[in-house]
Amino acid sequence: MPTMDPNRKKSKPVDLVDSVDSRVELTESTRSCPFPDEVLERVLSLIDSHKDRSSVSLVCKDWYNAERWSRRHVFIGNCYSVSPEIVAARFPRIRSVTLKGKPRFSDFNLVPEDWGADVHPWLSVFSSAYPFLEELRLKRMAVSDESLEFLATSFHGFKALSLLSCDGFSTDGLKAIASHCKNLTELDIQENGIDDLGGHWLSCFPESQTSLEVLNFASLNSEVSFDALEKLVSRCKSLRVLKLNRNISLDQLQKLLLHCPQLMELGTGTFMQELISGPVTEFKNMFSNCRKLVTVSGLWDATPLYLPVIYPVCASLTFLNLSYATLQSSELANLLFHCRSLRRLWLLDTVGDKGLEAVGSCCPLLEELRVFPADPFDQEIFLGVTESGFVSVSRGCPKLRHVLYFCRQMTNAAVATIARNCPDFTHFRLCIMNPGQPDYLTKEPMDEAFGAIVKTCTKLQRLAVSGLLTDRTFEYIGQHAKNMETLSVAFAGNSDLGMECVLKGCPKLRKLEIRDCPFGNAALLSGLTKYESMRSLWMSACNVTMNACRMLAKEKPRLNVEVMRDEEGSDDSQAHKVYVYRSVAGPRRDAPPFVLTL
Amino acid sequence: MKDDGASRRNITTAAMAEMIKSMMMKGYGGDGNGRLGEATELFTCQPVRGRTFTPVVHLNAIAIDPLNPNLFVVAVSDEFTRLYDIRKYRYDASAAFGILRGGYRDAKASFLYFHLHVKQTSKFMSMSEASMEKKAYGITGNKDLNLKATELRLGLPGSESPEREAVNKNLVAGAKRGFSDTVKELPKQPALLEKKPQVSVNSNSQTSVPAPKQQVVGWPPIRSFRKNTMAVSHTKNEENGDPKMGSGCLYVKVSMDGAPYLRKVDLEIYSCYLDLSSALEKMFSCFTIGQYGSHGVPTRDGLSESRLMNLLHGSEYVLTYEDKDGDWMLVGDVPWDMFISSCKRMRIMKSSDAIGLAPRAMEKCRNRT
Which residue of B has its CA nearest to A302? Predict the structure, then answer.
């Protein structure tokens, strides 16, 4: 950053959301920046992080302006915190938009359909404000086929579309994108509530489409035309990310890999071949040309017979996603033996504690581990992974920073050990799957476990807690988790004190999501002065009443306090689902009938 | 009520007779109620094969008049209680009990008694059980519910009828209680059969598998895509046959009566019964903390007090397994190799519940080459 002239008149920091319609005329007396605007803009254009840019814009009016003119990418964490008009007014030259909509618990069916977060109003405004928009990344937004068609036809230079956990569209919408976006470089469709009407969309890519760099259709179930796919892959020489769906067979994958040796990220299809007549030797060299591969995912139905096929590329892999491959411990151990450079590893708990031991011994550079449950809802509960697997990993992988761990039993002692072994945790999400389950050995609450985490891991940014927890846990969090930004709580706590501790004690808290906890009105209102510094608060199935929500709404007009009603005739005084977020756009205009904005 | 020909059902009685004969030969002793101190054999009924055109009822309970062991009464899955006089029939241990040449005639009951109370027996079941039953049958509430609701299967554990799969895991225990309860209440006169033999229904509340847990919405927090994908994979694996095989792995489920969840063990890693047994002991010892001992006295806290006895030879628990044919056998009776090739899953059950498994195991061993 350029140094400031100490003689400069200090201007008042500009309100972040002050909407300035046009470039401010600067008189001699107010112009204090020694650099011409163009230079400042040029310099600022090198700053990518939107947090830094926010800071930059607060320095002074000059910088605010320079920043807004030089910004190319805008990140909107809550689509209702601001309106498209305001965004368009402030940032005239946006090329790339990231937009997040529904509260995170909508991923787990806690938010009714038709809640909102429709992308279309945004697209309408953008079509006139940003005709040169190139990238759109949506998460938990409601997207319709019409919107996709509108997108495809309104923005002629459109390049990159990423849809994660969105819903409301079908493969017809993808057809529109494939057909009309001549310069498409990225089509990334992940885990959406998509209506899969068939794989014809892929065949809609015209012959002229040669610019594709990222193609991810791993979560689509329908079969695409392999012929079309093969031709597409062979003519897109810049393709670096290709994630196939389960219908692509192993021999088809082999053919594809011949066309794209430059691939960096690969999601395989089914990793086995039905016919057993000696095809394994044929596949042995499938990956021999893929020298740039750093990420492998997919591996559906991988068996020990075929897994060795990827061994040749394992040494250079940094991210291995095995969360759809039901591997056993020995299979994983054999595989990981070759994967010494792994930084990120996603697994299914079928690998068991033994598999995790292998992780600990083979992957010393590991920074991220996610262990998903294979049978989360099975009435006959198998023991997937336990505390000992986690401890083994922590011993062998001291660089662990990011963990998501689903298990059925845990102890305070184990977590304390893990915290000691891996003090650098930034993201710690432990899900003991049986709600309210104590330490299975001592039968005590899991308070000390999370206490150990927050005390030892000072860099912790994200925390998700589970198991039997008293207010103690939250006291610890409030006392120690000074860098924590996101906290997820379920089936925990004894009283309002828990939530109050968190709200009072965590200065960097931005997102708080709570479900099924005994926190009530006092807790809700204790955060009165806090919520405007946060992105959002979610409370469901807690002890909050409508009156408290009304009070909050009244005291804080710049917050949107939304209450979702479950059904007709439910008790008017109980607020079942409360969603509170700051907004400069005022109350929602598109709220459905079951959402009450107070 | 007269013996009504129209309501007659075919009953598989060969096994019944088998059991009664055995009981009589052993003599009555034990607690004076006709109950032996230790049950030694499990008698079961085989389904009538090849006669699907004839309606079959399932045996729920048998009671023998302790004062006149020639009389025994049978409670089955329909609305009648049948009293038989064994002297009327020749026992030849064949399925052709009472068969005449060229035809089939069922065993004719000396006395048929219709239970008026049957409609009210649902009150013996707790609400959750009643709803479990409802779910198991997909019944939405009509008169039939009561009859079905009182049905208990005296089948082999694991050999459930398709409808009952989710519910009946404690068949052996249930049957035993049914027997003892019935015997207790059995008066001298058949007329007193009015009393409700279906008290055994209550034993369902002590089933080892908890009622299907109410699934909490949105918990565990897993995205729909993953949920749906894993559900598909899981069904695929199940179709391919339990246990899940990988090369060098032979995972079987092990459940223990009273434990909140199952475990899976890889049979391939053990070389003999002793290894398996000690591994299982370690795995399941934590579940016996604070559990009641077999005499209703709570054990002291601490692992040392509540260690499982050696599973193979101990007295409190026995280790049983379900083989490829769906039969439940005692672990340890067959050669190890035969065991691991035929074992589908295992269950650690209380010895008091495991009756009569050993002889069958030997028989099977003999029958197999």
Answer: B246
Q: What is the pLDDT of residues B13-38, one digit of tens each?
A: 555 656 666 665 665 444 544 455 55
Q: What is the mean pLDDT of residues B152-179?
A: 37
What integer pLDDT is reported at residue A33 of this predicted model? 57
Residue B236 with chain A: CB contacts under 8 Å: 301
Q: Distance from A190 to chain B by nearest Cα, in Å?
A: 9
Residue with tokens 């035929």: B342
Helix (H) or strand (E) holding A429: strand A427-432
Q: Is A113 on the interface with B (CB under 8 A)?
A: no
pLDDT for res B116: 40
**Interface predicted TM-score (ipTM) of this complex, two decimals:** 0.85
pLDDT tops 70 at residue B110: no
- Would you say A187 and A174 are in contact if contact means Cβ atoms under 8 Å apart? yes
For residue B220, list chain A residues with Cβ-Cβ distance below 8 A.
373, 376, 406, 431, 433
| Chain A contact for B248 (CB, 8 A cutoff) | yes
Amino acid (one-letter) located at B28: Y
* Tokens coding B111: 């006395």
Given an 8 Å threshold on Cβ–Cβ distance, is A108 in contact with B217? Answer: yes
For A528-579, how does the pLDDT look when each residue is reduced to its tens digit (9 = 90+)?
Answer: 999 999 999 999 999 999 999 999 999 999 999 999 876 655 556 888 899 9
Q: Does A442 touch chain B (CB under 8 A)?
A: no
Report CB contact under 8 Å: B253, A375.
no
Kindly identify which residue of chain B lies nearest to residue A300, measuring between CA atoms.
Answer: B233
Mean pLDDT (chain B, rounded): 55
**CB-based contacts of B68, cutoff 8 Å, min separation 6:** none
**CA distances, B265 to each of A47, B175, B189, B273, B340 (Å):** 55, 29, 52, 13, 12
Q: What residues of chain A lie within 8 A of the CB of B260, using their CB? A: 381
**pLDDT of B210 strictly over 80:** no
Between CA A390 and CA A397 the distance in angstroms is 10
- Looking at the DSSP bridge assignments, the partners of residue A75 are A98
Supply the Cα-derived Rg of chain A in whole angstroms. 26
Amino acid making up residue B132:
M
Angstrom distance (rounded) from CA A203 to CA A54: 42
| Sequence-ordered alpha helix ranges (H) in chain B | 14-26, 127-137, 143-149, 171-185, 224-239, 273-284, 336-342, 357-367
- Averaged pLDDT, A433-459: 94
Q: Which amino acid is at A390?
A: F
